[in-house]
Amino acid sequence: QEQLVQSGSDLKRPGASVKVSCRASGYPFTTHAIYWVRQAPGQGLEWVGWINTANGNPTYAQGFTGRLVLSLDTSATTSHLQINSLKTEDTATYYCAREHLTDNVFDLWGQGTVVSVSS
Amino acid sequence: DIQVTQSPSSLSASVGDRVTMTCRASERISTYLNWYQQRPGKAPKALIYGASNLQSGVPSRFSGSGSGAEFTLTISDLQPEDFATYYCQQSYRKPRTFGRGTRLDI
Q: Closest approach of chain A CAs to the CA of B45, in angstroms?
């Protein structure tokens, strides 16, 4: 069964760092890009970055460069999202999603990880 | 980045109705347009890819059309579980940008 399972919710102080994981199973991990999408409370979907699982090359959305780190642990079929220097406006649910190889659609999603940033 | 604009931002309907919502891209994207449904507290779910192709397991009351820069999602015979927020996404170029969503209310 194909699935993406994310790590649990987290509460952080402003200025701290958080690391969210996304473990893939049931399909060849390195054949599908992994996207990270965030959703602030009551808001829409916003992509924050994606990582090429074949070579580990990350791409970040404008506005996140310098604070965001996407990485892979290929042996554990896991992608990690680390956000440094957290701000209160980073409070959101963070989703990982797999992009289908040929149809270019996010056909598999993680369950979401709530990151709350508050002093 | 390609901008994607959805309209309306919200829509009210009743069970059994037929509704249509629109997505416009800031440039021509052929048929590289996807639709997602998101129910409250849940992850988004892919409904349609390539503008008009139904994702596996999605009921046939959902349909998509369009090409170039203008696209529509139509839901026929609305069911209670269809009341959700719908997002379109362009897949013509990375990054795969989303629209702001159309909330479908009873």
A: 7
